Amino acid sequence: MRTLSDIADEYAFLEGDDRYRLLIELGRELDAMPAALKTDATLVRGCSAQVWVYPTGDEGRLHFLADSNAAITKGIVALVIAAVQDRPAEDIAAMDIREALAPFELERQLSSNRTQGVPNMIALVKEHAARIAAA
């Protein structure tokens, strides 16, 4: 998976539909999430599409699997995952993920339907990380 910084650099040079295409491409680059992990416990609430996030690894290095049934939403969750992928759980729990995503100006670039679940995606990622860091 690309780093959030690399994605931001590419995103900054794009406009309109090309930004949508980049998000769709990012979603396709996510590691495959087995259907068995798409449960109520991994479902992100409050999204217009279905989104699942599941942590693997341990407190020293969390690796997230994520998926969505909508291409653009899958790209958005890929951005969230890119911000935290393979970092220590404690760092993720303390991280301001919303600030890390600020360069993408998602609220200005996408409809409110597409971005309404972003805070919930972030919250679920941070909850998983905090739980694993405390274990």
Describe the structure.
By secondary structure, the chain is mainly alpha-helical. The protein has helices spanning 4-12, 16-29, 71-84, 89-94, 97-100, 106-109, 112-115, 118-134; strands at 51-58, 61-68. Strands 1-2 form a two-stranded antiparallel ribbon. The longest helix has 17 residues, at 118-134. It starts with a helix and ends with a helix.
Q: What is the CA-CA span between the terminal residues?
A: 27 Å
Q: What is the number of helical segments per DSSP (H or I, 4+ residues)?
A: 8
Instruction: Report strand %.
Output: 5-15%
The tally of beta strands, per DSSP, is 2
Low-pLDDT segments, ≥5 res: none
CATH architecture annotation name: Alpha-Beta Complex
Largest sheet: 2 strands, antiparallel
Give the number of domains: 1
> Regarding CATH, which class?
Alpha Beta
The secondary structure category is: mainly alpha
Helix fraction, binned, reads 40-55%
